[in-house]
Structure formats: structure tokens, C-alpha cells
Amino acid sequence: MNLFNLIKKEREYWLVDQHKVSHIPNIDYLVAFDQLLTEWKEQKVAYLSLLMDEENEDWLLKRRFKKVSSIVEYTKTLQGPFKNTSDFQVDALSESQVTDSDFARLYDACRSGSANKNKLFSISQIMESLELELGTNWRDQCFIFSQNGRNYGISIPHIEQGTTEEGRMFYFGVVPEQREKGYGKIFHAISIELLKTLGAKIYVGSTDTGNVPMRRIFETNGCVLRDIKGIYRIDMKKVDELRR
């Protein structure tokens, strides 16, 4: 069993997420991650971003990680067929008239002013990573919410790597001028429904602990708190400086 989900981008970054299983002791995670960290150092990747249980924080800080923030994970069991009872039009990027560059600008607008602290990438890097994480058909999983010709928000539901039934959202957001109008909970509910069409049986969503509006959306749409993790980062430049 893989104890960590891992996304790699050449020598630019590693994104690592602890896959927590109740019967596996914490020491097994520490041993596995120590091996992974050694490999990262040997390959001289620019940085590593890690999602891991906060009980290991002191252990990580001693290894020169810095803490970025804390996140909460919510979950919901998915049942029944897809249904959309809203008046919003929902189009996949692959079937819309929106270009990739227009979608990138819409994505960037949706993430502006976010309460989440873990902002690692520029919008160009995010667009590059879509195919890396979602595959060549990534446009089929990018959805735009619109009404009367106006775009209100986006969502990118997908099946988590290494699983067949765990649904997640690469991103979900509302454009700034349409916030605080209740659209967030509508688009989030539709996105959860879209996960069913991909075969998801369970949904897992996360946000910064301080992102109260997003936490309310999770709870309004029937999600329950599952876990709290820390976001930690280590940079190869800092590691090399310490070796000198």
C-alpha cells in the first residue's frame, strides 16, 4: 500500500500527501517518508510540499521543513445518479466556446482573494499541471458555471490518483464579483454530483482551517470533518546552504 500520494514535476517540485489508514502505525509513515525525502534530496528537486498529520510537526521542523498552514479535510459518501436542480448552465471546457487562455484567466480570477494560504503556483504553472495530474483529457474535467452568457465560476472534479472511487476537486471557485450571494454552495453541490459521473463513491474536500466560508459550504452540502493536516515545505536551496 502506498502511504503517500506523490505528484512530480521534473526537477521543479514534488507534491506529497499522506494517505492515512487507521491500522497503520505512525512510525511506518515516518520511515516511508524518510526514504522519500532522501530520494528527493538525491534528485535535487527544487522543493517538496507535504500534507501530513500535525502530530509529526516537531519531527518535520527538525528536518528543516517550514509550516505553511493547516487544512481541514471533509468527506461525503456519494449515492444515486447525477442530478442538477439549479438554473445554471454547466459546460465542460472541451465542449464550450471558451479557449484555454480564457479559462486560465477565469481560473485566476476565481482564486484571487482566496482565504487559503498555500499559494504555490502561478496560473501558467497551474495550467501546465492540469494535464500532469488529470491526463490528456483534462479539458473534459474542467467545468464552467454560467448564466445568460456570463461566467460565474469553475470547478475541476476528478478521481484521486491511485484510487478508483475517491472524488476530489482540483479546484473550485467563484469569481469575485459574484461572491457572498450563495453561488458557492450551489456550484459545490453540482461539482459533487459531477463526481458521480466519474465513478466516485466518496468525496474528499479540503481547505485552510481559517477559510470559514468554505467550511460552511462543506457542512451545508452534507460533508463531515474527517481530518486536520499541516502543510509543510522544504526547499533544496536551503538544504544546499546548510550543507556548505
From TrEMBL:
GO molecular function list: acyltransferase activity, transferring groups other than amino-acyl groups
Residue runs in coiled coils: none
Stored InterPro entries: Acyl_CoA_acyltransferase (IPR016181), GNAT_dom (IPR000182)
Domain N-acetyltransferase: 93-241
Leader peptide range in chain numbering: none
SUPFAM superfamilies in UniProt: Acyl-CoA N-acyltransferases (Nat)
Name this protein carries in UniProt: N-acetyltransferase domain-containing protein
